[in-house]
Each structure stands twice: as structure tokens, then as C-alpha cells.
Amino acid sequence: MKAHLTRRYRFSASHRLHSGEMPDTWNRETYGKCNNPHGHGHNYHLEVTVSGPVDPQTGMVCNLVDLDGFVANEILDRFGHQNLNTLPEFANEVPTTENLCVTIYDILRRGFREAHLEKVRMEETMMNSFEYAGGAELRG
Amino acid sequence: MVYLTRKAEFAASHYYHNPAFTPEQNRAIFGKCNNPYGHGHNYTLEVTVKGQVDPRSGFVVDLKQLKEIMNREVLDAMDHRFLNKEVPEFFNQIPTTENLAIAIWQRLSPKLKAAQLHRVRVYETPDLFVDFYGEA
After folding, report:
1. How far is B5 from B118, CA to CA, in rounded Å?
2. Residues of B with Cβ-Cβ distance to A65 under 8 angstroms
């Protein structure tokens, strides 16, 4: 039996939306307040969905200890309480939540081996969220 | 096709233990969830059905009937129960959230007539939920 398991995490970080390749007027028009030079922060919510057969021995898709450990070490420690613009991941990319979502998906896809990664969903605020499934269709 | 979701809440206790494992293996794999007297959660259940909108009633499904089926098949059996000891599916199966979602699907699916079951979502806590779509 195949089941989907979703775990929610939280971290806080700051960012500034600004493209170095574009003129200041374009940045201000495109990003508005998010272009303010010293940045601003969010309490992000991260949802990680994995899927797979339920192991008859354990009743689990994957052990949450493994998922929590991986996310804590590879994602929360890396992005929590950081200025995203200063991180190598965003040296050449604007740290929008779209790009953050794809970056986190790629980290999980490359490193987490205990279950199949289905999708990553990120809430930047209670009013907006972003989902990425590696280009696959999302399942509601 | 229209999808309709109904929520319900129930409280239950459980513990994780596989008699085929040694006590050390059980503690290593299941951690605190292996404590023998169990622990509890406030579960939230979301049942999503799909179907065509009936042109006479405007309904995908009669919500009153869906609520009655959920109450009878799930809440009456599981609310304020110790899942390992009181729900037959878990006499020989570990009551993880994964297995709970599958058991609830298997209880509901044959009882639904007009609409088709699409998804069973079970929240163990606000930060952990399992979706089951009836996939083998």
C-alpha cells in the first residue's frame, strides 16, 4: 500500500529581492517593498511530502527520525536565521520563495534516500505558498 | 468532477511495537512511541470524495449521509479508544498514521455509493499528516 507522508517545519530568514543584472528602476518596479536595500524577514513554513509503500514491519513510509534529522541538518541549520542573499545558493539567483522551494527540493532529492520525495511546499506568509514537485504534476 | 472534503476530529491513544523485533530494536526504531502504556493524539481526519454534481440536488454527496458514515465507521470505533487494543485492524498491525489512513479508507470505501472516495488524510499533529489514495 502506497501512502504519502507530509511533515511541517518552520524557520526564519531574511532576504532582499534584487537582480544585479537589472537596473534599479526595474528592481523597484518589479519587487516593490521587497527591494528595500537592507532586506526583511519571514517565518517560513516548509512542508516536505514523501511517498512509498508502507513497510509491514514498521508500519511506516519512512522513519520520521531520519526525515527530521536530514531536514534539521541540511535545511533548517543551513537556512534558519540567515540572510538568504549571503548564501552561496543565492549568489547568482534572487531568493524568492519560488527559488527557495526549488533549492530545498533539490537538496532533499539529492540527499534523502529513505523515501521517494514527492514535493516541497513553502509558505512565505499565511497568505502565499509555493509548491514544487520537480516538474511533475501536483496531486491535490 | 467536483471534490468535496469533510473534516472530523477524534482523540485516541496508541503505541508502536512489533513483537517480531527485540525490545532493543523496538526502542531503537520507534523511540518514545514504543512506551508500552501508550500515548495519545488529537487526530484530524479529512475525507475527500469526488463525483458529478447531481443536477436535482446540486450535491456531489449528501453531507448528512457522509457524516453518518464517518461517525459510524470511524469515530464510533476509534474516538477515545486505545487503538492497539480496541480496533481490530491494529491487533496485528502497528497503528502508525500510515496504517490508520489505510484502515479508514478500507472502512469507508465500500460504504460510499453516490460519490467515490478520493483521498483520506489523517493529521496526527498539525505538523504531520498522511494521505492515502487507495493505491496498491
Report:
1. 9
2. 31
Q: How many Cβ atoms are within 10 Å of A71's Cβ, its own excluded?
A: 20
Q: Domain tally for chain B?
A: 1
Residue B101 and residue A61 in contact, taking contact as beta carbons nearer than 8 Å? no
A2-132: CATH number: 3.30.479.10
- Which residues neighbour A79 within 8 Å (Cβ) at sequence distance 6 or greater? A11, A13, A44, A87, A100, A104
Give the N- to C-terminal CA distance of chain B in Å, as an integer: 23
Record the cell numbers describing residue B30, joined without a space. Answer: 520507534
- Residues of A taking part in catalysis: 34, 81, 124
Residue B68 domain boundaries: 2-132
Question: Would the CA dihedral through A105, A110, A112, A115 be positive or negative?
Answer: positive
Considering only alpha carbons, which residue of chain A is nearest residue B136?
A1
For residue B129, give the chain A residue with the closest CA: A6
pTM (whole model) above 0.90 = yes
Interface contact A9-B127, CB threshold 8 A: yes
Q: pLDDT value at position A20? A: 93
Taking contacts as CB-CB distances below 8 angstroms, the residues of chain B near A54 are: 96, 98-99, 102
The position carrying cell 511495537 is B17
ipTM: 0.88
Q: How far apart are CA B89 and CA A1, in angstroms?
A: 15
Domain limits of chain A? 2-132
Nearest to B79 by CA among B44, B33, B52: B44
- How many residues are listed for chain B in this entry? 136
Rounded Cα distance, B78 and B57, in Å:
32
At A65-121, the pLDDT tens digits run 999 999 999 999 999 999 999 999 999 999 999 999 999 999 999 999 999 999 999
